[in-house]
Design goal:
- This protein is of the alpha/beta class and 213 residues long.
- It is built from 5 helices and 7 strands, in the order αβαβββαβαβαβ.
- The chain has one domain: Vaccinia Virus protein VP39 (Rossmann fold, 3-Layer(aba) Sandwich), CATH 3.40.50.
- The two termini are 38 Å apart.
């Protein structure tokens, strides 16, 4: 795989929080991150699931399943479950997150991401994040709603990180070229001093949660 195909944020969060060697990749797509884990952690046993038909890869067992239904696997099988960019596509969110909890061993870790819902002011300026154009999204999340969803399903120690989106330095492009460096510098200083915040411009919420005993 080309390195540019990977999200640096996803790689960093996987590497930091992955637990054990029995991994389930839900909504695995083209097996991008399953492949990376197989190469990075050679002792891992990886199962990947999505709704599309494709072949397994060496070291990655793949099968198709309807993620709107109960997942056809035994309970307590996995030490880590990945769910990047998938929960927002599932109509029955409660069942899906509960199924993830069932599949994890006690102390197992869920790592994933969902689209952020704090950008609703952007349409007032005829702007929007690209993820708003995805008509298959069933919902968007705030940190509060995401935490509640995970805790109700039986997860604890929930950590949530807002990432992605537009850098405020892009506003320097509206100035003459000779002034852009100065505008960027001023924006950097304002960020450092916390005079401005980019939290409302983050497009994604990444999360890590642990299955309670």
């Amino acid at each position: 795989m080309q390195k540019s195909e990977y999200s640096p944020v996803k790689l960093a969060i996987i590497e930091k929080y992955i637990s054990g060697n029995k991994i389930l990749d839900l909504g695995a797509g083209k097996l991008l991150y399953s492949t990376w884990i197989r190469e990075k952690f050679s002792d891992s046993s990886i199962v990947a699931i999505d709704m599309i038909e494709q072949d397994s890869l060496e070291g990655v067992e793949y099968f198709t399943a309807d993620l709107e239904q109960k997942i056809p696997l035994d309970s307590l099988l996995f030490s880590t479950v990945l769910a990047f960019d998938v929960i927002e596509h599932i109509s029955n969110e409660t069942l899906f997150v509960s199924e993830i909890n069932r599949l994890l061993s006690v102390g197992g870790v869920l790592i994933g991401s969902v689209p952020h819902d704090k950008d609703l002011f952007l349409p007032e300026y005829n702007l929007t994040f690209y993820h708003r154009s995805d008509l298959t999204h069933k919902r968007y999340y705030t940190q509060e709603s995401l935490r509640k969803t995970l805790e109700v399903a039986g997860f604890s120690g929930v950590e949530i990180f807002a990432e992605g989106g537009v850098s405020p330095h892009v506003f320097a492009e509206f100035f003459p070229e000779s002034f852009r460096w100065l505008v960027k510098k001023m924006i950097s200083v304002a960020l450092k001093l916390r005079f401005i915040s980019t939290q409302r411009l983050k497009s994604d919420l990444f999360f890590v949660a642990t299955k309670q005993s």
